[in-house]
């Protein structure tokens, strides 16, 4: 499989080089030359396959030739060694729980896969790799955990000061060793911009071997297809495929779902469930793409004003807005609506979503009101405890803290404050590495 840059000014690369580079030299995102289409029988008989076999079959065509199949099987097995259950909330709506991994968020799948691929490729290199990553909350913790203590790898996480939850901040600032956090006095988009600029700074990249662990990196983005197909395995009504509502910020997750759909996965419709940061729903309505400064909300991991993966979504649909609209509808949900649906779902169905899941639930409910024969699922992208400061006042109860993170919450934060300014990042990196 070859990958091309969406800016079309850089040479094609294979999976190994795309993973190591993170982003193409012309600042474009890498995109696969062909999208594999799986046989109908694979999806028709999906219950027959183990989770590992499903994940392996999905990812193998993208990796082929760069990691041998036996090593890849091992990577896949370690990546999804936790449950990904589809849980009924009511008669029409199911929750795909993606928070049973070590950092309680869907990002664990991509981060674990990428860290293992990079570990595999790094064995062949002597140089230290510096992984740069921007986070609005969940990516940072998952990448910190996935790359913790990996030999030859240093991780630098940029996060917007005061704009991630207290649990997320602990997850990305307390591990120490090879994990370093930079607290940026700006927005997630500032962090993302600084990171992207670093990759094209020749002076810096001559001295430091940099890569990205955001979904701009194909090794972070592509494995996110796994759980869409694992959801299909658990979907009972195979004659009536699900509507899938995806809480969306940087749009890597929904873009992976759309990719799986183009590869043959039965899905009735996709919903981009956004908070007040509604650049993509506005685009779907008007045809105009207008990036905006990110607005802070209670579903903070989706506080993105210029989603990186929007260009990949356009490419998937050959830039044909009509085709995209046939598959994807966008909704924007306010913080007040999020609080009230969170409470309602908890009281009425005894199911506690996190604020991102609540946005996904309400967007799905709105769509199903117009499409009465359909049923659907929302992606429950993170455990509600990660947002206990929002959730507890809404439901008037304490959210029990899972054992997986109890000890980490007692550790002290270690971070360096920096301005939302590329020169500040460059100076920090040159000084440290
Ligand atoms: N929602 C993200 C923002 C970065 O997204 P990514 O998938 O490109 O890493 C976060 O939680 O940090």
CATH topology of the domain at 83-105 and 221-401: Rossmann fold
Average pLDDT reading:
97
Q: How much strand? A: 5-15%
The whole-angstrom Rg is 20 Å
Give the overall silhouette: globular
Please give the CATH architecture of the domain at 83-105 and 221-401: 3-Layer(aba) Sandwich
Work out the helicity level: 40-55%
User: How can the largest sheet be summarized?
Assistant: 6 strands, mixed
The parts where pLDDT drops under 50 for at least 5 residues are none
Straight-line distance between termini: 33 Å
User: Strand tally, please?
Assistant: 13
Structural class: alpha/beta
Bound molecules: ligand LJ64HWYM
Highest-level CATH class of the domain at 83-105 and 221-401? Alpha Beta
Count of helical stretches? 20
Cofactor: pyridoxal 5'-phosphate
GO biological process, one term: threonine biosynthetic process
Domain Threonine synthase N-terminal: 2-79
EC number: 4.2.3.1
